[in-house]
């Protein structure tokens, strides 16, 4: 999948031997055992995935949610996007 999207030609260079230890070519891909978030890059746009990441960062307290009219009044209306996230 990544090789098909490679607009810079990095995979082609790795296949020609110009780049060594390239993940997926001569260095095996090792999927994480317990990913904190999983994004689907086939069914979601980059913008949608960016939104999912931002919502997860807000949910975990790494980023403050933007103030809206309802959050200024003491109630929160932040809706967390659905993604596969591990607590």
Keyword list:
87 residues; mainly alpha; 2 domains; two-stranded antiparallel sheet; 3 helices; 5% strand; elongated
Structure report:
The chain has helices at residues 10-15, 46-59, 69-72, and strands spanning 37-38, 84-85. It has 87 residues and is mainly α. The protein has two domains: 1-30, no CATH class; 33-87, no CATH class. The chain starts with 9 loop residues before the first helix and ends with a strand.
Concise structural overview:
It contains 3 helices and 2 strands. The protein is mainly α and 87 residues long. The chain is elongated.
How would the blueprint of this fold be written?
Elements: H1 10-15, E1 37-38, H2 46-59, H3 69-72, E2 84-85
Antiparallel strand pairs: 1-2
Strand content: under 5%
Kindly name the structural category. Answer: mainly alpha
Number of strands: 2
What does the main sheet amount to? 2 strands, antiparallel
Tell me the count of domains.
Answer: 2
> What's the N-to-C terminus distance?
28 Å
The share of residues in helices is: 25-40%
**Distinct helical segment count:** 3
